[in-house]
Amino acid sequence: MSSRETAMDLAVRRPGRSPSAGRRSLVFALGCVGVLALGVVLTRTVENPYIFFAGYVVIQYVAVATGWNVLGGYAGYINFGPTAFYGVGVYTAAFLVKAMGAPLPVSIAAAGAAGALLGLAMGWMTLRVQGVYFAIATIALVVMAETVVHNIDYLGGASGLALMPPQAPAWAGGQPQFMLMVMLAIAVAFVAAARWIEISAMGRALRALKASEVAAECAGVPTFRLKLIACAISGAMLAIAGAPYVYYASFIEPGTAFSLALSLNAIAMPLIGGKRSWVGPVLGALLLATVQQAASVTISSELNILVVGVVLIAFVAVAPDGIVGIVEKLTGRRGA
Amino acid sequence: MAATRREFGTLVAAAGAAVAMPAVWRSAHGQGAPIRIGTTISKTGALSATKSTLTGLELWRDDVNKAGGLLGRPVELVTYDDQSAVAQIPSLFSKLVDIDKVDVLVSPYGAGLSAPLMPFIKQRDLFTIGMFALAGNDATRHDKFFHSAPWGPDSKINWARGFFDVAKQNGCSRIAVLSADVEFAKTAAGGAEQIAAEYGMTVVYKQSYPPATNDFSSILRNIKAQTPDAVFVCSYPPDSTALVRGLSEVGIGDSVKLFGGAMVGTQYASLLTSLGPALNGIVSFALYAPEPTMANTEMTAFLSRYEKVAAEQGLDPLGFYIPPFAYVAGQLIAAAVTGAGSLDKAAMAKVLHETEVKTIAGPARFNAIGDWTERRVLMVQFRDIKGKDVEQFRQPGRQVILDPPSLRSGELVAPLAKARSS
Amino acid sequence: MILELLANAVSTGVLLGCIYAALALGLAVSFGLLHIPNIAHPVFVVTGAFAATVFNAMGWDPLLVSLPLALVFYGAGIAFFEFYSRIYEKRGEADTMQALTLFFGVSLVIETVLVMKFGADQRSTDVDYVGQSLVLGPVVMPYRLLIPALVAPVMVTALWLYLKFTYAGIAIRAVAHDERALSVSGINPGWIKRHAFGLAAATAAISGAALVIVGPIDPFAGRMQIGRAFAVVILAGMGSIPGTLAAGILIGVTEALVGAFGSPSWAPAVAFTMLLATLAFKPSGLFGASR
Hints:
Chain A is mainly alpha-helical and 336 residues long. Helix content of chain A is 76%, strand content 1%.
């Protein structure tokens, strides 16, 4: 691995790390701690539980969008079936809750492992050929995953499954508050991981791969293995994002676990925010999910979907680098 | 919009207090503040055909407000679109309860969407009317939950018992069970097996199929090979259509006396008019049929008002299935509130537990977990359907009620092959 | 009895397979020949189906009316391709991933417009032959499947002859093969691609009419078909038009056999398994030239 890494570094090395990189990482770390602290304060002070229910949905999208972007944004491989992975996370957790009343950390770990395995399997079969085949296979993967769940009676099949997951620990101040904290921690961890990937050798190799797969391969980047790793990480993240859902809703069914709206948003959010850096998915998710939470109670949801579709087309057509790209263009700054 | 009006109301009240006319203002406000009823409607998504719920509720609201409201206060509906998505339910209902401060809840449509709501209303001890959530309260056993639909007690198993009662009366002993891989259908099929066992019938075929299957010929042939006496079908609208067409195309054999039972879609005009005469002989469930044993003037009046709205808004033109029971939901709320004389939840629940409520769908009594004590799910057989005109489905004699016995308007025509050819 | 079941399962599978092939045919042109991953194609088909129901309500036969509709779709396809290529000409090189996202957005917009116009309810057609069957000994073939199924071989043959023997058809295949060489020979590849994309869209009108005869559809019916349509094209081998028919039938028959002798619940997994197996073991497909 180490000899490979040198090769990768040589291939895509940027002219020296900027001296401010260390300071920026420190600021980022402080920011993460700040966000978590803010979450704790909010769960202690805000009375109205609605904030926690709605907040959970919004933050879950930050996690999903970030997970999707590891493969879709950094490697440029579009996963049209993020819900297949998310759903596997949901059902892994559901299985563990039903079989042994598993506590949340166990479910999260198991979901991550299942998502990574699925990512590896999918990637192994489809990533050797052009990326478009991978994208198409992921569309079909959702149908496959849903069919499998339909045929497992233990998991409730098509009827869904009502579960009594372990309740939140007493210090959390209630289930909605606890779930919000858990999701926030997951999202922060994902964003930190995404940022780390981005600035590490792996991120540079992925960028080289995205720019030109042939060139990267020639320069010694192990493209296939790299894509597999990215696919596994992304799969694990998406599945982990699904695991707490069981504890949030205490009821699961295939229609929710494999919902199209979630797939749509997971793709649209990084695209609108910007796919090249970790900021994009976070921005896109916060923006789109908040608008949708507000819009679901004001305008008709047909219009809602229509707007997402049109915005998607508009961004692909005129601003392929999303909001982050627009801002960079305006401020004349480029590069993450 | 609704929320701002409420805030405005508070503002007005505050302003009134400030102008030192407190007594007059406050009592006027106290009386005038609307009673808020909150629910989510599946305006979009897979269940959007159920959005006629809203029309039923609105017609009831208009009636109540015209008659002076409840406890002298007007009634206001607060509704959001849940997009037929279970994931939307927790946050939308939290919004209804915690932000909009509604006084009474009506559940979203069906058991799937209601499932995440149940622990919530139990925990918060909220008064809720269930909309078509089959066996929705059987696990939670919340004591302030009442069904508007007459599924009857222990409905997970029993709601389609009528089909098996008819089968038993007609000497059926070999049963085939076919169901879609969808929530409601799976539940129905599970109950069917239990009842078949209870009645000493043999299940000779049991199979499920994926939603949106559009060819049933091999399934029908497999069923035919088992020579069942009755075929209990739990299907959803697209596959109900394909199945009925398959019956005409490949047949089901002469052994079958009874076919259908839980075919969703045969309650709606769009499917009825697209299938027309191909429906003849098929038995399916309904909650209302315009038979002389069931029709009453209030129901007929309600339906004719509904039809006008439906024509404007492009809803199901018949409206036999959902809208009347949305109206019933309103009537139950009205009975509870007026009976209790307040919005005290325990008192409201007590009223419904102890007294019989007269609704447009007949008298309703409730058991401890809010089931109608008497199951009133109809098994109807389609007869004499000619052409594809919608009007004929409003006539008696086209959907003959076979069960329950108290509402029976005719006997089963069997075997199926004969019923279809007549 | 088993034999009768087998014969019927195979015949139903062939009929369904033909319909799958009809759905995938436009994709075989746009994706197989032009390398445009048009995941919105199934939604185009559904749009065609809705158009057919509108005219059917006025008393027209859906398949007959789909022929003039195909012309409209051809025009719309050309206009759409113009929009698509404008975006990419500006950007320089076409990025497949961006294109996928664009088509994804387009299918959302079309679906939503259909919902807003027609509602989310099921819509179906009213034709006389629905409910009747052609009986050949033990084999029963419903006209509801038979007649739409016949559309596929007709379209496949016509398209294949067109690509093989006409000037424009040969040019389309040339574009698929080597775009630059074509422009050297004095033909405008842009025009040829537009024309080909228009043809692909035109097939959607006809397949849509076929689809709505088979069973009722709603605006989201296309989603069920995306995976299957791509499975057909990839199994056939990129750009192989007759292969599309063979691949569709192979998938249809396998699904029918799984349904008849295994469990119908597993039928949706068939197309996907075949798609994955093709990608993993024979990416060039059954009839495609290796790339």
